[in-house]
C-alpha cells in the first residue's frame, strides 16, 4: 500500500515536471513581458534570451516569436543597448514586415528606433496558396509580396540550377504587390513540369546591391486534358477504286456470244437454208461492242467515280485530322498548371 | 394440241425453272417495254425440193410487262413477202404471247403460243398454231447503256399438219443511252419450221431495227 502511494506520488511529480517543462517557454515570454511592465528590463531581456536559446523558440508560432522580439527590442532599447535593440527589431522586420509597434504600449524612443530599423531593412515576405491551380489562358499563379519599406525588387522564376525561366517583376515595391505568372516562360511557351524557384531579390534603394534574397520552392505539374483520337482513315471503308474482272469479262463474253450466235445461227438451226450475209453486220457490231466493253472495263482499271468518292472521303479525312490536331494542340495548350508552394528560404547578403 | 416428243427436253427445262422460282432473284420491280420496228425479211420456202424465195419488209411490234420474277411478252409481225413471180407473193402475219420466268439478271425462260398465218395472193390463208419454249440471255456490254441478247427457241408442239420440228434463234444489241426511256434495237433472227416430214421447210430470216420506250 505504501509502495503504491509512493508510485502515485512519483508519477504525479513526473507528470507535473513535464507540464512545467511544456509551459516554461510561454512562461518565459510572459514573465519577460511582466518584467517589462515592472520596468525590470534586465530581467525581461534575460527571460527572452533564455527563451530564444531554448528549442521551443524555433518551433513557436510566428505570433509568439513576433511578440518576443518586440519586447526584446523594446527592453534592449530602454536599457540603452541600441545596437541590440536594432538587431532584435531587424529580426522582427524580417519575420513580418507588416509589424507595427503600438504607440500606446511602447514609448516614442522605442517606436522611433523600430521605425528607423524598418526603413533601413529591405526585406519582403511572400504569401501564396499552398496549392494553386490555373489555366494559362484564363488564370495565373499569384503571390502577394509584402515589403518592409520601399526598395527595388526583382522577382524571377528559376530552374533549380539557377537558369532564369522568366522575370516576373523588376521595379520598386512600396508596401505590397501581387505577382502574377501565367504559366509560360520568357518566350511564351508552356512551361515544362518540374521543380522551380520563385526568387525575390531585394536591393538597396539605389539598386546597386542585392541585400536579401527570398526563394520559394515551387513544384509545378502540368495536367493535360485527354486528346482526341485521330479519325479513322477512309481507306478501310472506301469503295474499290479499281475494276474487278467481272464487268470486262461479262462484256467480252456477251459480245462474243452474240457475235458468234449471229454468225452461226443459220449454220446450226437451218444448215440447208440460204444464209444472209447481213447478219454479219449484227455479229460485227455485237463483237465490237463486246471488245469495247472489255477494254473500257479492263480488269484493274481505275473507276473514276469511285476514285472521286475516295478522293472526297480522303480530303474530308485530312480535314478532320487537321481539325483534330488543332484541337489536341489547343487542349495541350489549355493544360491546367498545378503549383505546390514550399517553405520560403531567405538569405541575407549584406554580410557578404 | 399435239406435243412433239422431241421437244420435251426444253419444256422440261422451263418447267424446272418454274419449280425453282423461289430461288429467283427478285432484283427488279415492275417495268414495261414497248417497241415498234421494221425488219428486212428473207423467206425461203422449200416444198418437195423446190425453193421459193421471197423478200420483204416487216413491221414488228413488241410489248413486255415484267415483274420481279416473271414477264409477259406479246409480239406481232406482219410482212408482205414478194417472190420472183407475183403469183408466189404472200403475206405473213404472226402473233405470239409468251410467259417468261426471270432467272437472275441474265436469263429468261419463256413459253407460249405463236400463231402464224400465210395469206397467198390468191386469197387463201394458211394458219399455224405453234407452242414455243425459249431461253433468252441478256448481258451488259457498256454498262446499262449497251446490252446484248441471244435467244434460242424451240417449237414444243403445235396445231400444224405434219409438224416435225421448229426452232429459231436471235441475237442483237439494245442501246439505251443514259437514263433515257427510249431505246433502240438491232438484231438478227432466223426461224425454221420443218413440216411434212421434211417435205416442206419454211425458213425466215430478218434484220430488225426497232425503237421503243421503257416504262418503269
- Report the largest inter-chain contact: A-B, 33 and 32 residues
Discrete helix count of chain A: 9
Radius of gyration of chain A: 46 Å
Helix fraction of chain A?
Answer: 40-55%
Strand order of the largest sheet of chain B: 2-3-4-5-6-7-8-9-10-11
Tell me which oligomeric state these chains represent.
Answer: heterodimer
**Helical region count of chain B?**
1
User: Main β-sheet of chain A, in a few words?
Assistant: 7 strands, antiparallel
Spell the H/E element sequence of chain B.
Answer: EHEEEEEEEEEE
- Average pLDDT confidence of chain A is 85
Q: What's the pLDDT, averaged over the residues of chain B?
A: 85
Silhouette of chain A: rod-shaped
Largest sheet descriptor of chain B: 10 strands, antiparallel, barrel
Describe this structure in words.
The complex is a heterodimer of chains A (352) and B (216). The radius of gyration of chain A is 46 Å and the shape is rod-shaped. By secondary structure, chain A is of the alpha+beta class. In chain A, strands 2, 4, 5, 7, 8, 9 and 10 form a seven-stranded antiparallel sheet that branches. In chain A, strands 1-3-6 form a three-stranded antiparallel sheet, with no helix packed on it. In chain A, α1 packs across α2 (41-53) and α7 (246-269) packs antiparallel against α8 (279-296). Chain A contains nine helices and ten strands. In chain A, a hairpin with a 5-residue loop joins β4 and β5 (164-173). By secondary structure, chain B is mostly beta strands. Chain B has one helix at 8-19, and strands at residues 2-3, 31-47, 50-66, 70-82, 90-103, 107-120, 125-140, 146-158, 163-175, 182-195, 200-215. Chain B is globular and about 50 Å long. At the A-B interface, α7 and α8 of A face β2, β7, β8, β9 and β10 of B.
Amino acid at each position: 500500500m505504501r509502495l503504491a502511494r509512493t508510485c502515485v506520488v512519483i508519477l504525479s511529480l513526473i507528470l507535473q515536471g513535464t507540464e512545467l517543462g511544456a509551459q516554461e517557454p510561454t512562461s518565459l515570454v510572459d514573465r519577460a513581458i511582466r518584467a517589462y511592465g515592472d520596468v525590470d528590463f534586465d530581467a525581461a531581456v534575460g527571460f527572452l534570451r533564455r527563451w530564444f536559446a531554448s528549442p521551443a523558440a524555433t518551433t513557436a508560432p510566428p505570433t509568439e516569436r513576433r511578440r518576443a522580439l518586440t519586447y526584446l527590442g523594446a527592453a534592449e532599447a530602454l536599457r540603452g543597448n541600441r545596437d541590440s535593440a536594432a538587431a532584435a527589431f531587424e529580426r522582427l522586420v524580417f519575420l513580418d514586415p507588416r509589424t507595427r509597434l503600438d504607440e500606446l504600449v511602447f514609448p516614442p524612443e522605442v517606436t522611433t528606433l523600430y521605425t528607423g530599423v524598418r526603413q533601413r531593412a529591405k526585406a519582403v515576405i511572400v504569401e501564396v496558396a499552398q496549392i494553386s491551380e490555373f489555366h494559362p489562358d484564363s488564370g495565373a499563379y499569384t503571390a502577394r509580396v509584402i515589403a518592409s519599406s520601399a526598395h527595388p525588387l526583382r522577382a524571377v522564376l528559376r530552374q533549380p540550377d539557377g537558369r532564369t525561366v522568366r522575370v516576373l517583376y523588376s521595379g520598386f515595391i512600396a508596401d505590397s504587390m501581387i505577382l502574377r505568372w501565367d504559366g509560360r516562360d520568357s518566350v511564351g511557351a508552356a512551361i515544362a513540369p518540374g521543380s522551380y524557384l520563385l526568387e525575390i531579390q531585394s536591393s538597396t534603394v539605389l539598386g546597386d546591391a542585392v541585400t536579401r534574397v527570398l526563394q520559394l520552392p515551387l513544384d509545378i505539374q502540368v495536367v493535360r486534358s485527354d486528346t482526341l483520337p485521330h479519325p479513322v482513315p477512309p481507306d478501310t471503308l472506301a469503295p474499290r477504286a479499281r475494276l474487278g474482272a467481272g464487268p470486262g469479262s461479262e462484256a467480252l463474253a456477251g459480245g462474243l456470244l452474240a457475235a458468234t450466235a449471229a454468225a452461226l445461227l443459220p449454220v446450226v438451226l437451218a444448215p440447208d437454208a440460204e444464209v444472209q450475209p447481213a447478219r454479219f453486220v449484227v455479229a460485227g457490231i455485237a463483237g465490237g461492242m463486246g471488245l469495247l466493253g472489255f477494254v473500257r472495263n479492263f480488269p484493274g482499271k481505275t473507276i473514276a467515280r469511285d476514285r472521286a468518292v475516295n478522293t472526297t472521303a480522303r480530303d474530308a479525312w485530312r480535314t478532320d485530322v487537321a481539325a483534330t490536331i488543332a484541337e489536341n494542340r489547343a487542349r495541350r495548350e489549355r493544360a491546367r498548371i498545378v503549383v505546390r508552394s514550399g517553405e520560403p528560404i531567405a538569405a541575407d547578403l549584406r554580410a557578404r | 394440241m399435239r406435243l412433239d416428243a422431241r421437244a420435251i427436253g426444253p419444256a422440261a427445262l422451263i418447267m424446272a425453272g418454274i419449280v425453282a422460282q423461289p430461288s429467283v432473284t427478285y432484283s427488279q420491280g415492275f417495268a414495261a417495254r414497248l417497241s415498234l420496228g421494221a425488219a428486212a425479211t428473207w423467206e425461203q420456202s422449200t416444198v418437195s425440193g423446190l425453193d421459193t424465195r421471197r423478200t420483204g419488209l416487216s413491221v414488228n411490234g413488241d410489248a413486255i410487262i415484267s415483274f420481279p420474277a416473271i414477264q409477259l411478252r406479246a409480239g406481232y409481225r406482219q410482212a408482205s413477202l414478194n417472190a420472183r413471180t407475183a403469183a408466189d407473193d404472200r403475206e405473213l402475219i404472226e402473233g405470239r404471247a409468251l410467259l417468261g420466268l426471270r432467272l437472275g439478271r441474265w436469263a429468261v425462260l419463256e413459253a407460249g403460243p405463236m400463231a402464224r398465218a400465210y395469206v397467198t395472193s390468191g386469197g387463201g390463208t394458211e394458219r399455224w398454231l405453234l407452242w414455243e419454249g425459249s431461253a433468252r440471255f441478256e448481258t451488259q456490254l457498256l454498262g446499262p447503256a449497251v446490252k446484248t441478247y441471244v435467244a434460242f427457241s424451240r417449237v414444243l408442239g403445235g396445231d400444224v399438219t405434219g409438224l416435225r420440228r421448229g426452232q429459231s434463234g436471235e441475237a442483237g444489241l439494245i442501246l439505251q443511252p443514259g437514263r433515257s426511256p427510249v431505246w433502240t434495237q438491232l438484231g438478227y433472227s432466223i426461224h425454221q419450221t420443218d413440216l411434212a416430214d421434211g417435205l416442206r421447210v419454211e425458213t425466215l430470216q430478218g434484220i430488225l431495227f426497232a425503237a421503243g420506250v421503257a416504262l418503269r
